[in-house]
């Protein structure tokens, strides 16, 4: 055979063999790729079924997975969807309060009871386990001077608490807001009469008993935000401490280390303002003392006013000056009739409030001691 022809045939055969091998490899690769694509196309469906993904902003009902619990036998099972329905998707028209970490709405559940529904801000609790543990603890509290948590719902980052509804609203409203609108008609305005001296004594005593109960639990609870707007009044003007958004359960030596400054200006103890990171029961005692002086004098602790010398002064400082001059009756809220007031009782209650609001935390009494002192004074 011609040598040239042999070279050509050998080259052609080699080219054919190489092409065949390459073609086979391409077919194999395409088949594997197709199988991997098919496998991926099935996987997301299973993942979406198990995990609905992050919720859409401000859309509680976009989630299908969550949990709820009730702590009171008068309530049936309550779902997040029911709370959305009965609050008309948390309508501003139904807001009855603005507590720490969330707004409070008035609503009637499908089973009949009227309740207060609090929708917490997303940063109120870091995780569902922390939230659940805190709610289980607070749900067990049974005390006539503490607002009862009836249950909760949680879906995604949404946390909603269900409280008992306390009829007459907050102490803050009764001290400063002289009118309220009826539920039936916004034009039907009712006027709140000033709180009498005896009613104020009842409220102060109720708050003291509620705090004493919390502070003396096996694992004490610090409220950390005692103020007039967190005291609710029922039909008999019995005081109920509300809003545990800033409460902290504490272990050991009645203290809890926290880097978060909690509370409200005017009621906050000076040690918190000076950078202390230790929340203690005596912090609540200070806030109670300020609240007591506020109830007696009818003056907001956070608002400065003109003293006798024309200079601006705040409530606690003003009371301290007036006590030093034995001017007790002059401090009593001007809306209260002074006729029949026992000067001795007025003096002792002011002194007790001032002692609780002492700048030196070691001087402040315990809430058990406060309750005993109130019982003695008002006996």
UniProtKB/TrEMBL annotation:
Record membrane topology: Single-pass type I membrane protein
Annotated localization: Cell membrane
Disordered: annotated segments: 38-64
GO molecular function: ATP binding; protein kinase activity; protein serine/threonine kinase activity
Sites where the protein binds ATP: 119
Biological processes per GO annotation: defense response to oomycetes; signal transduction
SMART domains documented for this protein: S_TKc
Domain Protein kinase: 90-378
Transmembrane parts of this sequence: 6-28
Keywords: ATP-binding, Cell membrane, Glycoprotein, Kinase, Membrane, Nucleotide-binding, Receptor, Serine/threonine-protein kinase, Signal, Transferase, Transmembrane, Transmembrane helix
Keyword Lipid biosynthesis: no
Keyword Cell membrane part of the UniProt annotation: yes
Signal peptide from the UniProt entry: none
A GO cellular component annotation in the UniProt record: plasma membrane
Main location: membrane
Family recorded in the similarity comment: In the N-terminal section; belongs to the leguminous lectin family. In the C-terminal section; belongs to the protein kinase superfamily. Ser/Thr protein kinase family.
Protein known as: Protein kinase domain-containing protein
